[in-house]
Design brief:
three-stranded antiparallel β-sheet, 11 helices, elongated
Length: 222
Amino acid sequence: MPKLALVESEAMRRLGRMPEARRRALQQALVELCDARWAEIRGPEPAAPLAHALWSAAPPHADLLADLAAAGDTRLVGLLGRHTAQGFALLALAEVERGDAEGIRLAHAPMMLFDSPAAGARYAEAVAASLRSAAPALHRHAGKPPLWQALACLAARCGRTDLAAMRAAVSVLASSPGPSADPQLEALRRSLDETGVRFLGVDDDHVSLAIHGRAHAPVRVR
């Protein structure tokens, strides 16, 4: 990811001479719209533990903005007109202020892509599809290290790759070490067993795990 100063410079360039008060009002309106979008697309609250954890874990605002752009949402058009890159610039600046490295990365990349409407549209459509996907085909990646394989399993079984979803899934796995009546959770556990990875816990900074029955040094969440 580019240095923060470069991200800020690129974002501010796309916003031109927008007054700070206007910028902050747009940021707030955009965040609220993204939150509303997640409430619209995630569907009814599920009872199964893993599905509920994923339902509760909102994707990054940048992904939800991409989904709004792919849908040509009239609320987004009302805020930004056709200047979707400005929306990602606003989110990037907000994430810089928060110090959220993943949020910065996820807002910065599409901000650059949307300089080309065609490239931006392809990106937005891909993100929109991923937010609505069922579990895709599982690739075992047998030549990769066990932890890499385990992350691929999480993404495939959960249908999402964002950090919030990964953390939610690991938390459910760690809090339910025994057999479960949740078929999605059991399918995920069986896939992880094939990689030799067992997740033991997760907090804001680290994931605890064992590989082939042996304790592994905690891994940074990022």
